[in-house]
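Complex 548.
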Amino acid sequence: MEGDPMRYPMRYREAVIEKTLVIVALSAIAVLGLIILFIFKEGSPIMARIGVIRFIAGAKWAPSRGVFGILPMIWGSIWVTLGALIIGVPLGLACAIFLAEMAPARASAILKPAVELLAGIPSVVYGFIGLVVLVPFIRRWFGGPGFSVLAAAIVLGIMILPTIISISFDAFKAVPVAYRDGMLALGATRWQAIRMVILPAARPGIVAAVILGMGRAVGETMAVIMVAGNATKIPSSILAPVRTLTSNIALEMGYAAGEHREALFATGIVLFVVIALLNLTARLFATGGRVAR
Amino acid sequence: MFSNKDIKIDIKNLDLYYGPVHALKGITVSFPRNAITALIGPSGCGKSTLLRCLNRMNDLIENVKIEGMVTLDGEDIYAPDVDVTHLRKRIGMVFQRPVAFPLSIYENVACAARVHGVNDKRSLDPIVEESLRRVGLWDEVKDRLGSSALNLSLGQQQQLCIARVIATGPEVILLDEPCSALDPASTLRIEDLMRELEKRYTVIIVTHSMQQAARASDYTIFMLSGEIIEYGITDDVFTSPRDSRTESYVTGRLG
Ligand SMILES: Nc1ncnc2c1ncn2[C@@H]1O[C@H](COP(=O)(O)OP(=O)(O)OP(=O)(O)O)[C@@H](O)[C@H]1O
Ligand SMILES: [Mg+2]
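Predicted structure with adenosine-5'-triphosphate bound:
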């Protein structure tokens, strides 16, 4: 085999292609690894100096006086993300169920790509619409400054719709048709079939959709900055202004130096850990308890 | 051949088109009450299609056109005011591949009763037990009703599917090649089960196995490209067929 002249060039080419792919893949991974390393290198000294607990649980953020506590931003991220899920998950699931189980095949073939297109709209556009429509609306009808947890939650809730719709749609479509037909043959209505068998069967995919939507909500920055008000105080109500972890970095990175700059990197570490945990859970649920390879 | 009172389902001049494909041609036949009727014929002759006409599962397929008359106890099942969910409760169906839902064994049977409005556990428990006993599965699963039905063997899953149909309280049970995914031992269990079912239900079974049709049915219908070629008592169809095509099929020279 080795000496087969017909095979030699083929093998040679394959080897080159394979090596190239390995190098490309490794360098991509290396770049990611370096970024993570950099963030940790820049952020961890100050965390060590202040103390992890005091950094995370500190309620005051006053960089000019050297006080770095990110609890308000952690609460901010939690409130805004929860709000986005409360708005986005029911809406998204309802859309996905309609598109996957009820709409005629032709309609869902048009509507699903249209929904996915929404994911491609730059977040500054969502933020802008929130700023000129939603914020004044909330100020007028609910009171407060308008820039608020509520405004950010609504904007984010809409922004995570494409993720939730498209992933849970795929989860519904992956449920064998035989389940649906089996239920209908028992005399079930369409809704009974969905509720009793299709939803449970699609559950791992739905959970993954929710967690990925959550990841997007935690990570989104631009649109949130534009409508949330960005006060570094733990919000007292959903109408109060709020600042999230990502906003904190984006807002102050431009002029931060020294310890302040390190504290922003440390905020990045906290964000990184939160998002890594979310992704891990998504994988666990998507594979029904076994970690995906 | 039968008096009206013995007839459970009656089909008159049934034609079915899948778009341009004329899949059933002028079917006229009746299925007697509390008996097993076997549907045999080569692949693609329309056996499953005919079966699906009886519980209106063809309604779910796009571009189907159905003409003619199908009656259940003398009532037209295609009449505009028929409640299809109620029709499917009266005429249950078991598919070729066992369809165990990804739920517990208990829920797999209970969901059939839930569909028809039985919801509290005190009423569900006896239904589940009775249905599983009827198919001879109770003793094997009674200690693990809460575990996933997907862990059962294929044969057990098919029994479970029959139990599920029984739990809806049907009058007719349609079986579309219920044994084709099963080993010989499970097949025998299902055939024994059919003899039990016959006492209470009208059973219609599609099968590719001549032995199974000969062994397990009272009446046999032989179909060929969308038409009924021969219909009669099973023994007659197998030992003295009137049509030469039936003879060559049952002796294995056709299809
Ligand atoms: N959904 C459908 N759309 C279009 N044509 C169909 C559809 N289902 C069945 N047919 C056609 O109708 C005819 C009868 O099909 P059917 O499935 O009833 O045959 P069958 O006798 O059950 O065959 P088998 O023994 O292989 O199950 C075939 O020609 C088939 O191609
Ligand atoms: Mg068939």
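The pocket of magnesium ion (ligand 2) is lined by residues B 47-48, 176 (CB under 6 Å).
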